[in-house]
């Protein structure tokens, strides 16, 4: 009778999208389809976490929306694994809502602060310069091509003063780069070329130089910002904690506690938290976040794996490389910021 009841309970759990991924004394990892990637999954995950935390014998509850995982640590002498499963199923079928804690400000902003990402300069002023220079060039072209009128280009003409106004920000940036940042860039040469062209009576040519340079800067900022945002999004879903093997058991620790040669366990539906080499297991690994490949790659013992990649199927035990924190993703992020130094 007890065996029949257990089978029926398992069928009931599976039918409602609840599966036990791992169970050991004092710790369970459960996967619930209800809190996996969807429009309201973050809210449901928060409700599930609050609902389980109120149960007796529960030490901690962690939910991961990306994989739909619920990691529960509990006191076996005060509660049973079956009771936890029943509680999860109850919350899935009849969700109880909870008001968000106004004092809890952790989340994506905290993950972003852990990236050590520098603040990014707004390109609003550059866009304004492009619009101003485009307007002046349109005026000059209309005057010469449409109305067939002469175009004054001396330093005191309208075009000359407009070109000088467009050169002033470039001169400021050139002085800042050379004097303050102690680096040589193309800006001093462009500024010198624009000023000399203006005083030679070729203000329209100076406007063309300034327009091309500012359009290139705006385009570069736009592409770089998109790349930064993409990498930041990847970093935000990279787990802040990892499961390290200690005496044959998986122990959850923060990324800062991981040491070289630690063995990290990663299961189906999880993201790799570190760079390393596989010492046991095999899995299909989705490396789109690293190299853009759409198909998963089969990885086995001896193959390198990288943080932020996704385990589509299988289980891996990864030996962390010498420096666990400077992962491939964070190196990509750093390289995206190096462009500001040139």
If you had to describe this structure to a student in words, what would you say it looks like?
With 342 residues, the chain is of the alpha+beta class. The protein folds into 3 domains: 98 residues, Alpha-Beta Plaits, CATH 3.30.70.100; 112 residues; 97 residues, Calcium-transporting ATPase, cytoplasmic transduction domain A, CATH 2.70.150. It is 45% helix and 20% strand. The protein has 10 helices and 11 strands. The N terminus and C terminus are likely disordered.
Please describe the topology of this protein:
Blueprint: H1 2-15, E1 18-24, E2 27-32, H2 41-53, E3 58-64, E4 69-74, H3 81-93, H4 108-114, H5 124-146, H6 158-180, H7 187-199, H8 203-237, E5 241-246, E6 249-254, E7 263-266, E8 276-286, H9 288-291, E9 297-299, E10 304-305, E11 310-320, H10 328-337
Antiparallel strand pairs: 1-2, 2-4, 3-4, 5-6, 5-7, 7-11, 8-9, 8-10, 8-11
């Amino acid at each position: 009778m007890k065996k029949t009841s257990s089978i029926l309970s398992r069928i009931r759990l599976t039918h409602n999208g609840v599966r036990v991924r791992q169970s050991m004394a004092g710790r369970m990892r459960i996967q619930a389809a209800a809190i996996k990637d969807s429009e309201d999954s973050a809210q449901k995950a928060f409700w599930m976490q609050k609902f389980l935390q109120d149960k007796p014998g529960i030490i901690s509850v962690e939910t991961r929306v990306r994989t739909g995982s619920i990691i529960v640590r509990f006191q076996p002498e005060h509660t049973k694994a079956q009771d936890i499963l029943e509680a999860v199923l109850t919350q899935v079928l009849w969700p109880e809502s909870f008001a968000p804690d106004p004092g809890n400000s952790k989340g994506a902003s905290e993950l972003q602060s852990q990236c050590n990402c520098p603040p990014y300069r707004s390109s609003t002023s550059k866009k304004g310069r492009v619009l101003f220079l485009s307007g002046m060039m349109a005026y000059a072209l209309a005057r010469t091509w449409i109305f067939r009128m002469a175009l004054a280009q001396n330093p005191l003409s309208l075009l000359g003063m407009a070109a000088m106004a467009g050169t002033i920000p470039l001169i400021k940036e050139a002085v800042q780069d050379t004097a303050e940042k102690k680096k040589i860039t193309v800006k001093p040469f462009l500024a010198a070329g624009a000023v000399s062209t203006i005083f030679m009576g070729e203000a329209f040519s100076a406007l063309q130089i300034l327009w091309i340079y500012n359009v290139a800067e705006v385009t570069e900022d736009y592409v770089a910002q998109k790349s930064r945002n993409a990498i930041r999004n990847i970093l935000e879903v990279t787990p802040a904690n990892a499961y390290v093997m200690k005496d044959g058991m998986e122990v959850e620790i923060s990324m800062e506690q991981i040491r070289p040669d630690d063995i990290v366990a990663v299961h189906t539906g999880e993201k790799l938290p570190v760079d390393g080499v596989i010492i046991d297991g095999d899995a299909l690994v989705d490396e789109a976040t690293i190299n853009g490949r759409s198909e998963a790659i089969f990885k086995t013992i001896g193959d390198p794996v990288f943080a932020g990649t996704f385990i589509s199927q299988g289980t891996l035990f990864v030996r962390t490389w010498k420096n666990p924190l400077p992962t491939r993703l964070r190196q990509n992020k750093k390289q995206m910021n190096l462009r500001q130094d040139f």
